[in-house]
């Protein structure tokens, strides 16, 4: 590995090129792309929420192509079984033995589409894979890719026939990424592309998006992120923010210590995306809502009054002293 590859500048350059390649397919939504890159480059998982048609699936497919990684997709339905996700042993009559038929979880980037449409038993099939990057099939453990990343999508407007994600599983997602509709200018650009032969799907299918790294380089780049400077004062700032969520009057269930880790890792990677080798309080503030939003449960009486998690997080940020 050369000197360039051992520097933080190499990491920031790769992130810049990745954002540029993704922008060839995903119109606008730069903040969404950045959050997805943060999840990938920290080795974590992300929950993507948005109405149908805002390119949730296309985003993950594009990221897999840009980073030279495998991609699999599972459409979660009420009749989906755990074996449909992790695989099963099937008896081979010719060889007179059981053979492992691997499920779609044996990949690098896994899109769990509409994860809340499957019952808890099926959702829990992902728990071991997300936490340990391994699965157990008929008492035998199989290792997954070290870069295994789950992007789970949810439709926020459909509640009929859905199953809320268990708190233990939501806590395993580092970030909640909210994808909204494009702006007027972005939607106009999309319409213009559709008139020609350069729609986002066609751009990806034609191979106009070039891989900039591969799986091995991705693992090395994650190590480079550890060189970004994080002052002790910032560590205290992060811990205080998370602990405040557990004592706020409006919060029934606050954030776990895993949220502290997520806020630290995501803030550090945001610094790299911003082409800095040090983390600032603003990085922490920017990532606070994506990290905490899906982890906090408000008391019913406050929800009835119309209080939102975003407002609670903003109030907590105002209460905690910002380190100088």
Number of strand segments = 11
Count of alpha/pi helices: 15
Q: What is the H-and-E element order?
A: HHEHEHEEEHHEEEHEHHHHEHHEHH
Query: Which sheet architecture does the biggest sheet show?
Result: 5 strands, parallel
C-alpha Rg (nearest Å): 21 Å
Judging from the principal axes of the Cα atoms, what is the shape? globular
Percentage of residues assigned to helices: 40-55%
* Total tally of structural domains: 2
Oligomer: single chain
Unreliable parts: 1-5
Within CATH, the superfamily of the largest domain carries the name P-loop containing nucleotide triphosphate hydrolases
Global structural class: alpha/beta
Annotated CATH architecture of the largest domain:
3-Layer(aba) Sandwich
Instruction: Quickly name the level 1 CATH class of the largest domain.
Output: Alpha Beta
Summarize the structure in words.
With 324 residues, this protein is of the alpha/beta class. It contains 15 helices and 11 strands. The strands form 4 sheets. The protein has a 5-stranded parallel sheet. A hairpin with a 4-residue loop joins strand 3 and strand 4. 36% of the residues are buried.
Write a brief structural summary.
The chain has 15 helices and 11 strands. The protein has 324 residues and is α/β, with parallel strands linked by helices.
